[in-house]
Write a structure and sequence with these properties.
This protein is mostly helical. The chain has one domain. The protein is 89% helix and 0% strand. It is built from 5 helices and no strands. Helix 2 runs antiparallel to helix 3. It starts with a helix and ends with a helix. The model has no long low-confidence stretch (mean pLDDT 88).
Amino acid sequence: MEQIQVICRRYGRAAAFSALFAAAVCLLFGAAPLARGIVLGALFSIINFILMGRGLPVRVTGDRRRVVLKALSSLFFRYVFMAIPLYLGLTRESINVFAVAGGLFSIQMVILADHAVVGPLFAARKRRI
């Protein structure tokens, strides 16, 4: 459980910082709706990732029917939760829906960057030492 929390914190912080950096760049160029969309999508993505991490140990234990029911209900709840920022992006002009969609993938982008870029860099550094 503690390892899951460490991973959630690590990727959550990285996603938050990257979303805030992207939003700052958008604000510098005068694209406030893009900045709001990125931050909103990233916020919901981070919360979704934390909910997945907290629910994982709970779903693994118990009888089969209960585990399947918990897993499906958690999946449904998280889909509905992820639809909230998309709905806000569609109904409000002050939030760009495409930026929200990009922000929703912020955790996935951070994980991909960590494994594709950061991981090999540190592995190369360890080999030289």
